[in-house]
Amino acid sequence: MRIQIGEAAPDFTAEAFHGGGIREITLSQYRGQWVVLFFYVADFTFV
Amino acid sequence: MAAVAVKYPAFRELGAEVLAVSIDPADTHREWQEKELSRMVEGGTRFPMIADREGKVGSLYGVYDETNKVDLRAHFIVDPRGVVQALEVVAAPVGRNITEILRQLRALKRHEETGELMPCGWEPGKPALDRSVVSTSAGRIWEFWKPRNAF
């Protein structure tokens, strides 16, 4: 499935490393601000 | 992601949050941060690094590579209502241009605030186009917008 411009960004909840700890984050918790999602291939590579 | 980390303050100034996503577990994100990123950028990555186990998030966005079991290099700009306003997918061997992504964000925000149209290469300080002028000027855009403005 490819996302189209103007579509709702699919919501998700996932574990994340942030601020020195690991916690769950949900995309929709950022509603009200702009979000840039950066997908990348793998840690320890040039990205 | 080190380049994104360098520019993170610029994203924050624009009121944007950055979320990084790869298939690595959160512990690997931590290790990368501690062993490498924090040596490349002061403070390392200060934004959440999502552990996309099994590529679930990548699959939702159509950027999960089933063959290699990794997320592709891609970015999505999501507006405050949760709507996708820009997207890009780049082949793995080629890095992206963070400055361009910031430019897109600035242009999207300016459009949202003013309704103006943001022409090719627009950056703050360059002319934006009035929507009503554009809609009544088919064939006469050349009179008030020059290609040199794009560069």
Mean pLDDT reading of chain B: 93
Number of helical segments of chain B? 5
Sheet having the most strands of chain A: 2 strands, antiparallel
Low-pLDDT residue intervals, each spanning 5 or more residues of chain B: none
Q: Which percent range fits the helix content of chain B?
A: 25-40%
- Which two protein chains have the largest interface (Cβ within 8 Å of the partner's Cβ), and how many residues from each? A-B, 39 and 65 residues
- The count of β-strands of chain A is 3
CATH superfamily of the domain at 2-94 in chain B: Glutaredoxin
Structural class of chain A: mainly beta
**What percent strand of chain A?**
35-45%
Q: What number of structural domains do the residues of chain A give?
A: 1
Structural class of chain B: alpha+beta
Indicate the mean pLDDT of chain A: 93
- Using the 3D structure, state the CATH architecture of the domain at 2-94 in chain B: 3-Layer(aba) Sandwich
CATH C-level category of the domain at 2-94 in chain B? Alpha Beta
Strand fraction of chain B: 15-25%
Distance between the termini of chain A: 24 Å
Shape of chain B: elongated
Question: Which sheet architecture does the biggest sheet of chain B show?
Answer: 2 strands, parallel
Radius of gyration from the alpha-carbon trace of chain A, in angstroms: 13 Å
Helices of chain A, by number, come to 0
Brief synopsis:
With 47 residues, chain A is mostly beta strands.
What is this structure's SSE topology?
The complex is a heterodimer of chains A (47) and B (151).
Chain A: E1 13-18, E2 21-26, E3 34-39
Antiparallel strand pairs in A: 1-2
Chain B: H1 2-13, E1 16-22, H2 26-40, E2 49-51, H3 56-60, E3 64-65, E4 70-71, E5 73-78, E6 84-90, H4 98-114, H5 131-135
Parallel strand pairs in B: 1-2
Antiparallel strand pairs in B: 3-4, 5-6
